């Protein structure tokens, strides 16, 4: 073949993501773009003097408004916008926005699929199955629609998976290299794992922070490798220190804005003092948990193929597959901690979003275990069911492209709720009917 498979995967995924990219003006998008514009045009993180659209995703500190979003994606936007502005002499416009999306969200999506495919080399499955699994991750999950605009979820998922990828190189037999029968510890892999996870924290703080905690415990419990915690922490230190400095500048605390909500979000006239629509939902914890698992924003409803990822995890744990049992426990427990933490700390579903986007960060690590269902499997039923479920997942994914969202708040009994999948699907069906 003229191109290696990885190159083909990269080109296809990048082109498709770019083709469907959208500059849909959502608050999170505006919050990040306004910060990039402020830095390039005014040499400040403060966004109150940026002309154009405003956002509710902001905090007030020391007399200035700042974005409430983690800083790393914005820093990437700054570099791209600065070069575009300097080279063309033009101010920010929609073409610049498309280029920024291409070089951040779209590129992260393509790189994630390439590394996911590379990681599957350690499973005994056919090449075609590896390719199918890779494109299933890309186009059969919410990664795809959230990779077509300036959301932080895909870059965060990329960084977490790269951290997991390099951690596996130190912890499981298929990855470990030996010299004359002696196991090598490769400190560089721990350092890279820590570095990528710190990048994830600076991109999507809470969920990536939980990954950091569980990865740290995972290393500490490994008797052979626990001393390599030093290298893991050392790799995470540079970005971690820069994130602390940023927080001190914009929040007055070493902690991100989320952990100082009363002081920073509840300023006079703040939207968050009296939120509306989906942000005003006050569902009890049981209903919230139901909704994010299988309900209106359900993880398994919007990405059904996750069932096979968790099935692979359970198989690794139950069958005591030596090389995968510990990593399987790691991802299962991390996923559970993320879900439980969000359940007990918020009533918010991520605004008027399509699906529960705050769990996208874990998708690649979960689906990584799916090949365990296919290895040495003479019964094609599992593969058949996977392909059928994958088709449904792809349809749901494409319905959720940002430019087509249609979300309506409705009352069920005494409870305000919404169902983004059905609302958006209904709009598409009405459009089709109108054209017939």
Features:
single chain; 436 residues; mainly alpha; two-stranded antiparallel sheet; globular
Spans of at least 5 consecutive residues whose pLDDT stays below 50 are 176-182
Question: In this structure, how is the largest beta sheet organized?
Answer: 2 strands, antiparallel
What is the beta-strand fraction?
Answer: under 5%
Distance between the termini: 44 Å
Q: Helical stretch count?
A: 17
User: What class do helices, strands and sheet pairing give?
Assistant: mainly alpha
Structural shape: globular
Residue-averaged pLDDT: 89
* Helix percentage range: 55-70%
H/E topology pattern: HHEEHHHHEEHHHHHHHHHHEEH
**How many separate domains?**
1
Rg value: 22 Å
Biggest sheet, spatial arrangement of strands: 1-2
Number of strands: 6
Description of the structure:
- There is one protein chain.
- Helices cover 58% and strands 4% of the residues.
- It has 436 residues and is mainly α.
- It has one domain (5-435).
- A hairpin with a 2-residue loop joins strand 1 (58-61) and strand 2.
- Helix 13 crosses helix 14 (322-345).
- It is globular and about 60 Å long.
């Amino acid at each position: 073949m003229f191109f290696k498979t990885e190159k083909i995967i990269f080109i296809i995924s990048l082109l498709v993501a770019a083709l469907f990219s959208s500059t849909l003006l959502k608050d999170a998008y505006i919050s990040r773009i306004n910060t990039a514009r402020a830095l390039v045009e005014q040499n400040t993180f403060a966004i109150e003097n940026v002309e154009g659209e405003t956002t509710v995703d902001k905090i007030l500190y020391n007399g200035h408004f700042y974005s409430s979003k983690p800083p790393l994606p914005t820093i990437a936007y700054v570099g791209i916008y600065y070069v575009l502005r300097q080279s063309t002499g033009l101010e920010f416009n929609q073409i610049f926005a498309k280029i920024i999306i291409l070089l951040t969200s779209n590129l992260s999506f393509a790189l994630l699929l390439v590394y996911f495919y590379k990681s599957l080399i350690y499973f005994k499955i056919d090449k075609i199955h590896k390719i199918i699994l890779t494109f299933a991750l890309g186009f059969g999950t919410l990664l795809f629609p959230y990779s077509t605009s300036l959301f932080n979820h895909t870059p965060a998922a990329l960084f977490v998976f790269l951290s997991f990828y390099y951690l596996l190189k130190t912890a499981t037999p298929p990855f470990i290299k030996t010299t004359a029968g002696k196991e090598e510890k490769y400190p560089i892999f721990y350092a890279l794992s820590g570095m990528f996870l710190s990048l994830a924290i600076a991109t999507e703080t809470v969920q990536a922070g939980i990954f950091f905690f569980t990865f740290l415990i995972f290393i500490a419990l490994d008797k052979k490798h626990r001393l390599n915690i030093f290298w893991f922490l050392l790799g995470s230190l540079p970005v971690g220190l820069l994130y602390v400095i940023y927080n001190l500048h914009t929040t007055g605390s070493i902690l991100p804005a989320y952990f100082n909500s009363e002081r920073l979000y509840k300023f006079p006239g703040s939207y968050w003092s009296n939120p509306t629509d989906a942000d005003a939902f006050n569902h009890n914890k049981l209903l919230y948990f139901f909704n994010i698992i299988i309900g209106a924003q359900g993880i398994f409803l919007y990405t059904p193929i996750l069932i096979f990822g968790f099935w692979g995890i359970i198989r690794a744990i139950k069958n005591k597959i030596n090389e995968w049992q510990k990593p399987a426990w790691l991802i299962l427990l991390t996923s559970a901690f993320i879900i439980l933490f969000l359940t007990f700390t918020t009533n918010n579903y991520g605004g008027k979003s399509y699906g529960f986007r705050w769990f996208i960060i874990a998708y690649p690590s979960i689906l990584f275990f799916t090949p365990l269902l296919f290895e040495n499997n003479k019964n094609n039923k599992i593969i058949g069911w996977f392909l059928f479920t994958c088709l449904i997942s792809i349809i749901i994914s494409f319905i959720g492209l940002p430019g087509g969202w249609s979300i309506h708040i409705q009352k069920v009994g005494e409870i305000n709720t919404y169902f983004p999948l059905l609302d958006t699907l209904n709009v598409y069906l009405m459009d089709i009917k109108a054209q017939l």
